[in-house]
Amino acid sequence: MTDKNSKYAILIIISGFLLRLINIGQPLFDVTKWRQTETASIARNFYYNEMNIFYPQILWGGATEGYVGETEFQLYTFVVALLYKIFGVHEYLGRLVSIFAFCGGAFFLYKLARKYIGAQGAIIALLFYTFNPHIFFYSRAFMPESTMLFFSIALVYFFSQWIDTERRKDFILMTLCGACAFLVKIPAVCLGLPLLYLCIVKYKWKWFLERKLWLFAILTLLPTALWYIHAIKSNDINGLSFGAFSGKSLINKEGLGLGFLTNSYFYKKVFYLYIFQRHLIYIGAVFTIVGIFSAIRTKDLYLFHYWILSQIISFFISAGTSDYHSYYTITITAPSSIFVAWVIVIYFDRIKRAKIVHLPILEKFFVAPVFILMLIMLPLICHHKIKSKYKPERMVKDMPIYVAGNKVRKISPKDALIITAHWGGPELLYYSDRRGWRMESSKCTIESIEVLRKQGATWFVSSRVMEINKDVISHLQHDYEVIELTDKYIIAKL
After folding, report:
1. What is the pLDDT of residue 351?
2. Which fold has domain 393-493?
3. In the prediction, which pLDDT does 227 show?
4. In the 8-state DSSP scheme, what is residue 408?
5. pLDDT of residue 256
6. Which helix (H) or strand (E) holds 484?
7. Rounded to whole angstroms, how far apart are CA atoms 462 and 485?
8. What residues does each domain of the chain span?
9. What is the rounded CA–CA span in Å between residue 302 and residue 450?
10. Shortest CA distance to 50 belongs to which of 37, 35, 67?
């Protein structure tokens, strides 16, 4: 029979699910529109073509087929494409996969928290995680982050269960979750640190003699290694890359990139702006820090110390992306939720033990109001923090992309190659549903258009007309057929 706390947990998860359905059908015009339309393009290309998960395709490869390398394994987009096969191409399906992944991750976070800090603490951790602003945002985005978090949290839970019981079922589930987590997002590999801690606690320094641990490592890491070998080869052949092993990351093709270690901007942006301010919304960060130091002597919580440490390590390894994209740092929210809850529970317990206030009075006038306050305030804080990501001005600003893209899709042949000029992202290509090239509107020249036209480009579209040089507009009007020209966008047939 489900106990009272489990019923509360189910209600919180259901509430989180329903709130995430609001405006689920809106276009992909929030703050991560580049990443979301890129991801949505890959899912739609799976649907259009052969559903070959080993050869993801993007739209910005010009006249090529668009096979892209150096990217994560496209499990998330493949699942979305399968749903497209059943229900048709709808963007809300991508969001829905993320929402269901959030529910799964929240469920296992509750189970994990209940195991280590008790039922009351688990409810508090679940509340903080469910209504965390950035978890809320990315758990309904057309991106793989929510899926990665689901597999990561489930991995830690099932591994902790297997360490205790060594049941075959837990071994199979932890291996499956581990392989999927590492494939979906390679920084998840850093979770090996808290898992290693659990192994050392049980097996001491003889853990390396345990054959089952080696089997687990092989079954989880080998698929990831094989995938990236394939992905790098694909990049070498096709010349199209997501740059998984390039840029400012600690580990890249050029070796070790250590320049960011002395860059104060990196620390300020990752640890203050992203983690302290956005992800843990100040008070959560304070509670996490207090929890980390308060639990130094609580060995049962060392798992979460190492979990947080593993995520910090991952931020450094992927420094070139973690300081540019805040979603690379949301992984710290799961273990932080545990510490936030533990601090609240442990300090309430200390007050109770001190008998400063009579227990019934304490529970009536302190515990209940605090819980109700959290239940009310966390959703309100969440709404306040993320409303800017969905503000109407953003939709109005990006609407020319949607309008112009859909017009190109309707009037151009399916095999048309188009030149898009706006801010450099794939959004116009995505809503045009055409392959082609992308460039910044301010850098668009007559010469660049003519070069791409000779490579096969037959259409030109821009959603930022005011940024394009007037000579370029005149050239298009004089030499080609301008289908539509407004103060927002231009569509021309070359």
Report:
1. 61
2. D-Maltodextrin-Binding Protein; domain 2 (3.40.190)
3. 95
4. H
5. 45
6. strand 481-485
7. 10
8. 4-388, 393-493
9. 61
10. 67
Chain centre distance of CA 15 = 21
DSSP states along 277-341:
IIISTTHHHHHHHHHHHHTTT-GGGHHHHHHHHHHHHHHHHTHHHHTT-GGGGGGGHHHHHHHHH
Residue 452's contacts (CB-CB under 8 Å, 6 or more residues apart) are 62, 419, 437
Q: What is the C-alpha separation between 442 and 360, in angstroms, rounded?
A: 68
Count, residues in the chain: 494
Of 491, 437, 492, 435, which is closest to residue 463 (Cα–Cα)? 491
How many angstroms separate the CA atoms of 193 and 313, rounded? Answer: 10
Which portions of the chain are predicted below pLDDT 70?
Answer: 1, 243-262, 320, 323, 349-395
Q: What are phi and psi of 164, to 5 degrees?
A: -80, -40
Rounded-to-integer distance, Cα 112 and Cα 342, Å: 13
**What CA–CA distance (Å, rounded) separates 115 from 112?**
5
- In this structure, the strands spanning 459-462 and 417-422 are parallel
Q: Which two tokens stand for residue 74?
A: 């496209």
Exposure on the CB side of residue 132, measured as CA atoms within 13 A:
33
Query: What is the pLDDT at residue 388?
Result: 65
- Listed in sequence order, the residues at least 6 apart from 290 whose beta carbon sits closer than 8 Å to its beta carbon are 339, 343
pLDDT at site 261: 67
d(CA 89, CA 75) in angstroms, rounded, equals 17
- Residue 255 pLDDT: 44
DSSP single-letter state for residue 489: -
Q: Give the DSSP H or E segment for 256.
A: strand 255-256
- Give the single-character DSSP code of 356: S
User: What strands lie across the sheet with 417-422, from one edge to the other?
Assistant: 435-440, 417-422, 459-462, 490-493, 481-485
Residue 163, classed as helix, strand or coil, is: helix
Cite the beta strand spans of 366-446 per DSSP E: 417-422, 435-440
Q: What is the DSSP letter of 482?
A: E
Q: How far is CA 153 from the centre of its chain?
A: 14
CA distance 355 to 6: 29
* Whole-angstrom distance, CA of residue 197 vs CA of residue 174: 16
Rounded to whole angstroms, what are the CA distances from 430 to 26, 190, 212, 229? Answer: 15, 33, 45, 28
Listed residue (267, 383, 278) closest to 332, CA to CA = 278
